[in-house]
């Protein structure tokens, strides 16, 4: 599912990118979305994350696939890029971990060129009748199984807790609009387990 979701991000951006576009993947972690963007869109991709060990893994993955992606150590709330730098920005499963969702959206907006699009992939609130069964799995079975497999149950307990405190689809869409984006929409993925939010930075008036 995770691979399909990430490729959906790339697919949704594919029709609106200019030739020689530059795309920034924020909170890129070990580089999975950045690599999908590079493979599907055939554009210049930059990955940014504050966690150096994850960036080292991402760099090795890119080298193995011969993908020329620079991975930069950076704070998502204070990105080291000039205003209006990128044709698109993405963030997958990272927005809810920021100290301020609003400040994170402001940074996405700042580094986007006018007319550029933001794509935000995040866990969300499943829709009925899928909701009750998934909640049982997410809060009970996943921590148990994840702990057995990985040896770190706490990481899989943090995941449902952080998702429960994160804005649902409609509230996140409102926050994105409040940050200045227009044409804001979202797509529920796998019954709303995840949602892909899209928004465009308005063109400057002449």
Description:
This protein has 206 residues and is an alpha/beta fold. It folds into 2 domains: 2-124 and 167-200, Rossmann fold (3-Layer(aba) Sandwich); 125-165, no CATH class. Helices cover 43% and strands 23% of the residues. The protein contains 7 helices and 7 strands. It has helices spanning 2-13, 32-41, 52-64, 101-111, 130-150, 153-164, 169-178, and strands at residues 22-26, 44-49, 71-73, 86-92, 112-123, 182-189, 194-200. A 7-stranded mixed sheet has the order 3-2-1-4-5-7-6, with helices on both faces. Strand 2, helix 3 and strand 3 form a beta-alpha-beta unit.
What is shown here, in short?
With about 210 residues, this protein is an alpha/beta fold.
State the secondary-structure class: alpha/beta
The fraction of residues in strands falls at 15-25%
The stretches of 5 or more residues where confidence is low (pLDDT under 50) are none
CATH architecture of the largest domain: 3-Layer(aba) Sandwich
Shape: globular
Largest sheet: 7 strands, mixed
- Average the pLDDT over all residues and give the rounded result: 89
**CATH T-level fold name of the largest domain:** Rossmann fold
The radius of gyration computed from the alpha-carbon positions, rounded to a whole number of angstroms, is 17 Å
The level of helicity is 40-55%
Number of strands: 7
Count of domain modules: 2
CATH level 1 name of the largest domain: Alpha Beta
The N- to C-terminal Cα distance equals 43 Å
Spatial arrangement of strands, main beta sheet? 3-2-1-4-5-7-6
Q: Would you identify the CATH H-level superfamily of the largest domain? A: Vaccinia Virus protein VP39
- The helix/strand order is HEHEHEEHEHHHEE
Continuous helix count: 7
């Amino acid at each position: 599912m995770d691979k399909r979701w990430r490729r959906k991000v790339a697919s949704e951006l594919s029709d609106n990118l200019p030739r020689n576009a530059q795309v920034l993947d924020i909170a890129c972690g070990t580089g999975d979305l950045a690599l999908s963007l590079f493979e599907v869109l055939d554009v210049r991709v930059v990955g940014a994350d504050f966690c150096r060990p994850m960036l080292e893994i991402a760099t090795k993955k890119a080298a193995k696939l011969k993908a020329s992606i620079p991975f930069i150590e950076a704070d998502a709330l204070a990105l080291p890029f000039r205003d209006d730098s990128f044709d698109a920005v993405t963030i997958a499963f990272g927005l809810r971990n920021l100290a301020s969702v609003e400040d994170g959206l402001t940074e996405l907006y700042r580094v986007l060129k006018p007319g550029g699009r933001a794509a935000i992939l995040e866990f969300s609130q499943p829709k009925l009748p899928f909701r009750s069964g998934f909640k049982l799995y997410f809060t009970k079975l996943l921590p148990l199984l994840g702990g057995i497999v990985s040896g770190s149950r706490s990481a899989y307990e943090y995941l449902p807790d952080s998702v429960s405190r994160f804005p649902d689809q409609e509230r996140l869409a409102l926050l994105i609009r409040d940050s200045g984006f227009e044409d804001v929409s979202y797509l529920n993925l796998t019954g709303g387990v995840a949602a892909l939010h899209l928004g465009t930075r308005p063109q400057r008036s002449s």
